[in-house]
Each structure stands twice: as C-alpha cells, then as structure tokens.
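Because discrete structure vocabularies remain unfamiliar, it helps to consider an illustrative case, giving the amino acid sequence and backbone structure tokens:
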Amino acid sequence: MSKTHATVKARLRAKRDIDEAAGAARSEYTTVVAGQDRVYRDKLQEAVDYLANGGAVPPYVAIEADVTGATATGAAQAIIDAAAACRARDVVIEAARLAGKRAVDDAGDDVQAIESARDGAVSDVLAA
C-alpha cells in the first residue's frame, strides 16, 4: 500500500471515527431512533406556537402536561427549555467535531500523526 493510499485511508477512518464519537456523545442526552428527531421538532414547534398564540392545547404539549402533571403553559416551557439545553450541547459537540476533523486534515501525510489527531479529537468530542 502506497503512503498516499495509506494516508487517505487513515484520514477517512479518522473522520468517520470522529463522526461516530459525535453520534455517541449526542446519544447520551437524546433519543437516537428513527423518527424521534421529527417528534422532537414537532413537539418544539407546538410548544413555541402555543406559548405565542394560546388557543387549544396541541397534542404533544397536552401529553407532556398529562405525564408530568404540569400546566399546559408549564409543559410548553419545559419542552422549549429542554430543546434549548440540547441545542447548547449540540453546538459544543459540533465545535469539537469540526475542530477534530480540521486537526486530522492538518496532521499532514503521516499516518501516525493522523491517528494521534483522531484520538485527541475523539476524546474531545466525547468530553464535550
């Protein structure tokens, strides 16, 4: 295997590992199953609309209120607060992920340097 081929493979593997670490870090605080992202997005939209416009309590807000024992307004605010907390964490993880990929690109053509950059990036992403 040529150095160039080995370097390309190491760089691709490193970036994949960084992406997987970001996914693992996100899965620590959010449900990662098919369709759940849509539920979270719809739930947040309902909560924002309800607090802004009032009216009939939308289904996801009603469920949250029923399960938690909160008022509809309290449930809507809790949904918004949870989404904001997740977004703040997502931003930190994304910053670490992109910085890690940059470090891999900046590691040059040495496979060991690429793997070292990957290891540092994975650690940073998981600590985010």
